[in-house]
């Protein structure tokens, strides 16, 4: 940071700057530097990873590759969006304030412990940038969501990937042992891509035994699909925990872009340093606020997802196909061979399934779609597994590859 400005040495062209308090000048310089760093940090998102090989989806494609919610926004959210459109020509910061207040009240937090973003990808990346470095490693599960690894590489941090346990949970003790120099421990629960849970007690152990100055970044993007206990109580207790939530999944707002970060004020301040001014789209703000007021939305969609997921698992069991049991809206399916071959063969039938994680090269991630979509998935999968349909050159439309170091083989 530039040294404190001394009025007695100022030049004539510095007259305007001298009217600013020194604290304001320092804040401006800090913000400018952080904004420059943020521009250099490419934000990697789920759709970027999922669609790295697909240019355009054919008409009527079955898209179960991106962990989207095919139900879209709830009825109250759609009504709120329609009502706010005439005000789309104005900046409406008060809508952001309203959403922050609603989230804080719902979670028993103070306003300064909550920030909203256009999705949860930005705060994920900014947290990694703020707390990981060439001296402080980024620790994640393997397989796990890849975006944080991209952010870690961008800031020169070592990425430490730790295998899941036999029950497909994050291995807290192994994560601690693998990186005594860690700056960030990333835990996604339910995990992406496996849809499996890490217990609250394991999270507590990780928080209490981590290196001083590090943080535990808990991603609860999929928690509403499960019966898992949230880590929000650790935020309320003032622990070194940064918790992410999104409206992209169970609320069906992936295209509208709305998410939130919850943490101690001092931790949020460090994240803010990398984000600059965070203006939110008014459609996302009113849709999110309306969704929170709909008491039936989450439990209803949780039941729908669980029923369809259960039907798919029952079908897989009856037909002898192996998969990882999930409590989310996605699961990992054994392809009985190179997963790319199965992915391409499914695409030939206009059914697009998820990508590959290098540690599990014979598994592909499947998103839970509608009942009708999953029936088409089952029909297509049966043909692929019986050899009735095979992959061929040109089975999938392609585009330039997305380079994500440390990410999935389909995205690299």
Written overview of the protein:
This protein is an alpha/beta fold and 412 residues long. It has 2 domains: 46-71 and 297-385, Alpha-Beta Complex (Aspartate Aminotransferase, domain 1), CATH 3.90.1150.10; 75-293, Aspartate Aminotransferase, domain 2. Helices cover 38% and strands 13% of the residues. The protein has 14 helices and 11 strands. The chain has helices spanning 22-40, 46-50, 75-84, 93-107, 121-131, 147-154, 172-178, 200-209, 232-236, 265-272, 282-293, 297-318, 339-348, 371-385, and strands spanning 62-64, 114-117, 137-142, 159-163, 182-188, 215-219, 241-246, 259-262, 330-334, 351-353, 363-367. It has a 7-stranded mixed β-sheet with strand order 2-8-7-6-5-3-4, with helices on both faces. It has a two-stranded parallel sheet with strand order 1-10. Strands 9-11 form a two-stranded antiparallel sheet. Helix 3 runs antiparallel to helix 11, helix 4 packs parallel to helix 11 (282-293) and helix 5 runs parallel beside helix 6. It is globular and about 60 Å long. Mean pLDDT is 85; it is low at 1-39 and 393-412.
